[in-house]
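Researcher: Re-running this chain for the archive, since the previous output was lost when a drive failed. Same request as before.
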Amino acid sequence: MNETSTDLVAPQDFPATAVTSPIAVFLSPMERPKSVGTAVALTVWFGPIGSFYAGAMWGLAWLTVSVVAAVFTMGISILFTWPAVVIATAVRVSGRNRRVAQHRPIYAAATARPSVSAITS
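Model: Regenerated structure tokens:
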């Protein structure tokens, strides 16, 4: 293979610890479920800022919506956006936990090293 070749490299050319499955690229072995109770508590106490626990983009979106709505309604919208943020953040974290639980076996299979018996046979 020359220096300017654009050929794809076969997975066996990578070390045994390399991730060779495309699905495993999107999953982290450190990804753990988040607590729905913590999400609700943070959002009740801190409002839209507490929704950053569910994710950075999620928190930024809710913070932007809440601030813009509060500006246009002179703060009255807080009575509606605060409970909506609490509920939406709880639903978001719960859905994330389901996805993490669903993909954990896929990640384990995608990154597993072959057993010695599979190599010798």
